[in-house]
Design brief:
single chain, Gyrase A, domain 2, 17 helices, alpha+beta, four-stranded antiparallel β-sheet, DNA polymerase, domain 1
């Protein structure tokens, strides 16, 4: 039997270039050269390996004319009928709720800007990720703090007086002082704030009417005094020998600016936020990962290529579009395709007003017109040889 050398392997790999993707050739060459160092490879064995790789590659190729969109819709939609409608707790963190199952899949495909449970998983840099106290200190620092978190309030609507009794322990835990709280309220809402007894604030606004004063009190109670906007709660959990912070609420841009944060691994489940901060390609990857995770958590397996196709359709214009009447389905170039989806009369009326024409290049419009669809055998035009 003829023994194979490194040179032979490289020659054979060169012949594969153009027949299979370059990354497959590189990985195969690397594996064969590694194997060759451990034991001998015969020419027959090398040929078998190359044939197996070629056969596997050909088998995974999509047939020309395949209705990939329809197959993707079926492959995601059918398992979707088995998905739960409940809300589960988040991966071992009982205190945080996360939307899973069908509601989460709908959120992703609808590209909703306001999701029901925005969450972040924040990884920390050393030494913060190995020190529980440091991780907890960071977690408490990023949570949005309002007056209701650190004080009791009592208002006299008739006289226009609001008394705020600050909790000393809560202030210390959040690293705030009465002076800082008073200054924040005064600067943001343009009111005079008096301090008495160290931990008691009084706000007077006697010239305001009852309705106006009620609005002022509501604004004071909602005013963020410290922390990062949008982060409602933060919990610290130990995972794999390090401390990780989970948050209820999300603000990716500001979290990534914190010096303790590992910006490479920190993630959010808010896809629009990812698009704004990291760009459309990152948002595409997030759609794929979130959809795949949602399906896997329900014990459902879907070929990732179907999910990738959906993500590409949602993001290829540079912005995230939903799959629905206000997104991909409602923006098709074909008048008949738009009319067939929803609001038939409105689409036809608007198209006639603007003098639109339909070139009948898609599936739906050709079905309506009673013509062969441009898929499968319908893509081929045959001319009889006379």
């Amino acid at each position: 039997m003829t023994k194979v050398t490194e040179e032979t392997v490289r020659e054979e790999m060169g012949k594969l270039e153009g027949k299979v993707p370059s990354y497959v050739v590189r990985e195969l060459e690397k594996a064969l050269l590694k194997r060759l160092k451990e034991r001998e490879i015969t020419r027959e064995q090398l040929n078998k390996v190359i044939k197996a790789v070629m056969d596997a590659y050909v088998n995974v190729l999509v047939e020309p004319g395949e209705a990939v969109g329809t197959v993707a819709a079926q492959s995601i939609g059918e398992p979707g009928t088995q998905m739960t409608l409940r809300t589960f707790h988040y991966a071992g963190v009982a205190e945080l709720n996360v939307t899973l199952g069908l509601p989460r899949l709908i959120e992703i495909l609808d590209a909703r800007k306001q999701i029901s449970n925005p969450l972040m998983t924040i990884y920390l840099k050393p030494p913060h990720n190995t020190n529980k106290d440091r991780a907890k200190k960071f977690a408490s620092r990023i949570v949005t703090t309002t007056i209701e978190d650190i004080a009791l309030t009592e208002s006299d609507m008739v006289r226009g007086i609001l008394d705020i009794s600050l909790n000393k322990g809560e202030l210390q835990e959040r690293g705030l002082t009465p002076k800082e709280v008073a200054k924040k309220i005064a600067d943001e809402l343009n009111v005079e704030v008096g301090i008495s007894g160290g931990f008691r604030l009084r706000i007077r606004h006697p010239e305001a009417g009852i309705t106006e004063f009620k609005r002022l009190v509501a604004k004071i109670k909602e005013l963020p005094l410290a922390g990062i906007k949008g982060i409602r709660r933060a919990l610290v959990r130990e995972e794999g020998g390090e401390f990780v912070v989970y948050t209820e609420g999300s603000n990716l841009a500001e979290i990534l600016e914190q010096p303790e944060v590992d910006v490479v691994r920190t993630v959010t489940n808010d896809i629009h936020e990812i698009a704004e901060v990291l760009g459309i390609e990152a948002a595409r990857n997030a759609i794929i990962e979130e959809a795949e995770r949602t399906l896997q958590e329900q014990g459902l397996e879907v070929d990732i290529r179907h999910i990738m196709l959906v993500a590409d359709m949602m993001t290829h214009t540079g912005v995230i579009r939903q799959i629905g009447r206000h997104g991909i389905s409602g923006e098709k170039a074909s008048v008949l395709a738009r009319a067939a989806f929803e609001m038939t009369t409105q689409h036809l009326f608007e198209a006639s007003m603007h003098g639109e024409s339909d070139r009948l290049t898609g599936i739906i419009e050709n079905v309506i017109a009673g013509q062969p669809i441009p898929l499968g055998t319908g893509m081929v035009e045959l001319v009889r040889k006379m």
